[in-house]
Design goal:
alpha/beta, 36% helix, Dimethylsulfoxide Reductase, domain 2, 9-stranded mixed sheet
Length: 381
């Protein structure tokens, strides 16, 4: 049912759970991060944070939080890939990251025959603009014309602003793209019946995301438009969604224990930034969950105890370690899939390297929580 270690020496899962619980009991500010796991794993992490007064944040929340910041300040139009593949006749793909990191999603969206909605206003049919595009062909584009507009990665935000200026009837000169290119893109998009803007949080800074969201809003003044935002890997967006449903906040939250009312979740996107807490030395215990296939090794800060849940052998420096399975391979789970735009079940296929049964992240986190409760009960007796 999976291996466990205490200070590098193999131990039983029960002994390791008790050791992890003791570390949590004596921690001043534990950070539960990684969160590269399924829905049940995220919920178990939130439950453990509530029990020990810890902070919860995903290891890859930085790009996601740029999108969250824009959504909070000005709102965004969003759509599912399944709708856009059938309804959109004009696509603006921003940067190379979207096509490189989510080729399957791009192929899914662009590869369908449009069969919903009214005809294009200019009669030109489906067409694609790839702003800052690469030299490789877009997956799924087929016979649809693709206009690749050269633009440096650090100029994408300004280029989007230039397109918005043209749509708004404001003058613009040359910038990261020419004024003529900005006008041509604006004409292509405004001539569509339904525009879809696709971008990745890894391609744009906060200003760029705000420009992309604003462009969609501008287009909706004269036609219909929406966007698909690629939110990075590691189930970061799924973790934020689950955290919002459980706590009311999209990660970067801490459960503040209070004797008067039992406590409440406190959200501060800066103070509870997991990477900042580690860099500033404000956390004295890191619980890192890496339960996805191909997940990056955890970053273990020097001088800080770490409880690590991951597949395979433990990294050097973990005070307590647990081997866990991969959802959809070693055990069933529910994962967020960007190409669907929702959560989907993932059945175990038994395709692990050794075929051995492994515990889920939720099971291990639940065992640690049970051990912590038992230790508290013993101390109170």
């Amino acid at each position: 049912m999976g291996k466990a270690w205490i200070n590098g020496a193999q131990a039983s899962p029960g002994e390791a759970a008790s050791a992890a619980a003791r570390l949590l009991a004596h921690s001043r500010l534990p950070l539960i991060t990684g969160l590269e796991t399924d829905v049940a794993g995220v919920k178990a992490a939130l439950g453990l944070a509530k029990l020990c007064g810890g902070v919860v944040d995903h290891r890859d929340s930085h790009g996601l939080y740029r999108a969250i910041e824009v959504t909070r300040s000005s709102g965004r139009f969003t759509a599912t890939p399944a709708e856009m593949r059938r309804r959109a006749d004009r696509f603006l793909i921003v940067g190379t990251e979207a096509a490189e990191s989510a080729a399957d999603l791009i192929g899914f969206v662009l590869g369908a025959v449009r069969d919903l909605g009214r005809p294009s206003a200019d009669g030109a049919g489906r067409s694609i603009v790839w702003l800052g595009g690469g030299s490789s062909p877009l997956p799924g584009a087929g016979a649809a014309p693709v206009d690749v507009v050269a633009c440096a990665a650090d100029g994408l935000s300004d280029a989007l602003g230039m397109i918005r200026a043209v749509l708004g009837g404001r003058p613009t000169g040359d910038g990261p793209i020419s004024a003529e290119a900005a006008a041509a893109i604006a004409a292509t998009l405004s001539g569509g019946a339904f525009v879809c803007v696709i971008w990745s949080v890894d391609s744009l800074d906060t200003l760029g995301i705000d420009m992309a969201a604003g462009l969609v809003a501008d287009l909706n003044l004269a036609t219909r438009a929406s966007s698909i935002s690629l939110t990075g890997g590691g189930q970061a967006y799924g973790a934020a969604q689950i955290a919002t449903s459980v706590t009311g906040f999209p990660l970067r939250s801490r459960f503040v224990v209070a004797e008067s009312d039992g406590g409440a979740w406190s959200h501060d996107a800066w103070a509870n930034d997991g990477a900042r807490l580690i860099a500033a030395g404000e956390t004295d215990l890191v619980v890192h969950v890496s339960g996805l296939e191909g997940a990056a090794a955890p970053l273990l800060p020097a001088g800080v105890d770490a409880i690590v849940l991951m597949g395979g052998e433990m990294p050097q420096g973990a005070a307590v370690g647990f081997e866990i399975g991969v959802p959809g391979r070693d055990h069933a789970g529910v994962l967020y899939r960007e190409e669907v735009g929702s959560f989907v079940p993932a059945e175990a296929d038994g395709g692990g390297p050794d075929g051995a049964a492994k515990r889920s992240a939720a099971d291990v986190l639940g065992a640690i929580a049970d051990a912590l409760r038992a230790q508290r009960k013993e101390r109170a007796a």
